[in-house]
Amino acid sequence: MPDVHLLVLIHGMWGNPSHLAHASKIIREVKGELEGSDVKLEVLVAETNKDESTYDGIDWGGERVAEEIQRKTADLEKEGRKVTRFSVTGYSLGGLVARYVIGILHQSKFFETVQPVNFNTMATPHIGIPRFPSTFSSMAAFLGPKLLSRSGEQFFCVDKWSPRGRPLIEVLADPDRIFYQALILFPNIRIYANAINDTTVPYVTSGISTEDPFGEYEKNGIKIDFHEKYKHVIESYSAPPSSFVTKTEPQSWLETVRSKRLVLPPRFQTEFPLNLVIYTLLPVLFPTFICLALVRLSFQTHKSRSRLRDLETHSTRDRLVHIIGKLESELESAVVDLYDDPAGTPIPASPIPGAEPGDITKSATPTKGKEKKSRSKPPPHQPLLTPSQLQCIENLNKIPQLKKERAFFAGVRNSHAIIICRDPKMFKHHLDGEGVLRHWADHFEL
Question: CB of 437 within 8 A of CB of 420?
């Protein structure tokens, strides 16, 4: 029987396997039945970390998915089918879970017998959720960690995941840690980001960039060329001149009402003239919706906290966070020894393969130039990045095989679900993202 190439698909926050049904369908069509191939594609859509379980954090989600992968591999071997190649694609939160999962697999020596091939993410907040100079962004940064349990804390980088108090997002991007070292094992690393209109995961974090060249694309003169074969996928773009500004004609009040899209769930969004009815009912709808959302989020967060306490209490195996904690403690002890006897005590090499000796503060200490840049106030569409986020961007962009693709969905309120065709049965416009999925499938190495 042919060898098996196992592809794992991981959904995002509040997600479930149905969100990746269209992606699974396309990859099976493109790579599933290749004639003459000695490798057979097997797609595993992760199921163990779904719905309310996504509140439990990147790490616990990663632990669940890693166990699911190990079980799937064992089941295939019982059928006489050996997994020899491995790939993973994560959407939104699922991309961060994927980065954690490969760290677990690498730690367990999984990649000594299985070849890592493709690592892909779609609209993933690789540096967490950045702050912007707006009231809404400030409110989200304040409420997110409180209403989204452990995942919210990790999204906004306020968790103290490692024993040294570093957030998990920072540890994931540290070249001296197992997650980064697992990532660079993949010869094909390709990330997909929404260039515009992603109000859930902005471009700078999904595209791992310090700036957003598409923030004012209608005004700044940026030139964008699109793929002929893959609809809505940018083939190339040229940065706008720094002095280029265009003037826009003011709209009449009727044109404004016609084009205005409300910040409401998609099923409540309507076009003119029905949007006038929604405007009229806003004094009732808006506070009702906000209250219901807060109650639900608070309830799920409370359940998640209780679930996490049980998981921590009853977990019998040594999780990766504990292993990393031991390694960081050993490194800190080495530094203490160095200060006690700087002339006679050499700094030992890091227990993690590939780490540089004595480099325990590099990822947390930005240069003065970066620190100054992070403190300067950018335009409204540009982020307020922290030194830690800047360091994550620098570390990740050093990966030589990293490729970035940008999707461009104009005229939508939120493109986050479209990039993965999340729910085309309920929202037909989600099918606009099929060009992105075709690009992903065609560039997937079997």
Answer: yes
Tokens of 236: 């190339």
Beta bridge partners of 225: 236
**Nearest C-alpha neighbor of 436 from the set 12, 204, 123, 203:** 123
Q: Which two tokens stand for residue 288?
A: 């009702």
Q: Are 167 and 152 in contact (CB under 8 A)?
A: no
Query: Which residues, at least 6 apart from 284, have a Cβ–Cβ distance to it below 8 Å?
Result: none
Structure tokens at 38: 């000695």
CB 194 within 8 A of CB 123: yes
Give the tens place of pLDDT for each residue, 246-274: 554 554 545 544 444 545 555 555 555 66
What angle separates helix 387-397 from helix 368-375, to the nearest 10 degrees? Answer: 120
Q: Answer for the pair 24, 7: CB distance below 8 angstroms, yes or no.
A: no
Return the ∠ at Cα 200 (arms to 49 and 220), rounded to 5°.
150
Q: pLDDT tens-digit profile of 216-250? A: 898 888 999 999 999 999 999 997 666 555 554 55
